[in-house]
Amino acid sequence: MVEPASASREPQEFEGVLAQSAGGVASFESHEKTFFLRIQHFLHSSPAAVPLIILVLSVIAFGLLVGGSFFSAFSLTLILQQVAITGIVAAAQTLIILTAGIDLSVGAIMVLTSVVMGQFTFRYGLPAPLAILSGFAVGALCGWINGMLVAHVRLPPFIVTLGTWQIFLATNFLYSANETIRAQDIETNAPILQFFGNSFRVGGAVFTYAVILLVLLVFLIWYVLNHTAWGRHVYAVGDDPVAAELSGVRVKRTLVSVYVVAGLICALAGWALIGRIGSVSPTAGQFSNIESITAVVIGGASLFGGRGSILGTLFGALIVGVFSLGLRLWGTDPQWTYLMIGLLIIVAVAIDQWIRKISA
After folding, report:
1. What phi and psi, each to the nearest 5 degrees, are found at residue 190?
2. Could you report the per-residue pLDDT of 184-242, keeping only the tens digit for each?
């Protein structure tokens, strides 16, 4: 039998080189992560972790300083009542900041929509439910104006909302003629406007419907951001709008929709504000824009966009409430509250910068 030619021939030069080469699989040297690097990775993947830790430590610290009264059901639910309005407005602010924007007009939209609800009921005689819907329409319109200027005219969000903040605030004062609609009149003729101010007891705890609204709103936004295409698009636009557009995301439409949704949430806060103070006042909620930004920043959201959590925003609002009530019960000057909150903001931004080194 004749042997195959391949069995009898001499190996060529390049085949000899291959025969002498290493046959191992390529591998990369792995460096074990340090303790701080592991913490950094964990905090980067869990934006709500830092505010949750600060919240728990704050509650424990003030409980030790103030005493058992701070841990009472009434005191803890009082914190929820105090931060309900700020938390709702901060939910709107969270959506804006996730897109790498900022909205200074959220407080003005809230007050304007509450005035519209009251004036449409008492000046024009509309049924209160229709007046409430009119307030939501105004909130959506204000958000649409902001969104169009940011997305289509390509103006910076800070400048746009700084201008519309003044415009919406002036519209509020001019339209209402600086008149307050009394709580007694609302209670008699349109009690539904005060609905979110009503409360109920569970043992020693006192909850208002505004608190329930805040909790439901937070979990709804959490679900939308984490389990819908729109939520993923919001994060993508905030992280890198150019890459998002190349991936098929309609960036301009997403931005406009975010500002419209934020306007609707502000209108919801305006309705809850009437319940909180009992009346319709054009001067209420003047600092809601700053308070909402404070809650979002302390809550771990990045001002550079693309990273943050609505749960972190809730924790941030609660941290502000814990410090406000804790320092008051401790008998300190109220100005210490602003000092402590200011320090928390600086620390929160510093932590965000440290965490962002992971993505860099």
Report:
1. -145, 65
2. 999 999 999 999 999 999 888 999 999 999 999 999 999 999 999 999 999 999 999 99
Look at the chain and count its residues. Answer: 360
Beta bridge partners of 205: 202
What is the residue extent of each domain of the chain?
Answer: 48-355
264, HSE (Cβ side, Cα atoms, 13 Å): 10
Sign of the alpha-carbon torsion through 56, 75, 320, 89: positive
| Widest CA span in the chain | 114
User: What's the fold here for domain 48-355?
Assistant: ABC transporter involved in vitamin B12 uptake, BtuC (1.10.3470)
> Tell me: the pLDDT tens digits for 141-188?
999 999 999 999 999 999 999 999 999 999 999 999 999 999 999 999
149 closest CA partner among 105, 215, 83: 105
- Residues 344/317, Cβ–Cβ less than 8 Å: no
Average pLDDT over residues 245-262: 97
Q: What is the rounded average pLDDT of the residues 245-261?
A: 97
DSSP one-letter code for 63: H
* Cα gap 111→93, rounded to integer Å: 15
pTM above 0.90, yes or no: no
Looking at residue 296, its pLDDT comes to 95
Integer Cα distance of 297 and 47 in angstroms: 11
> CA 123 to CA 143: how far, in whole Å?
25
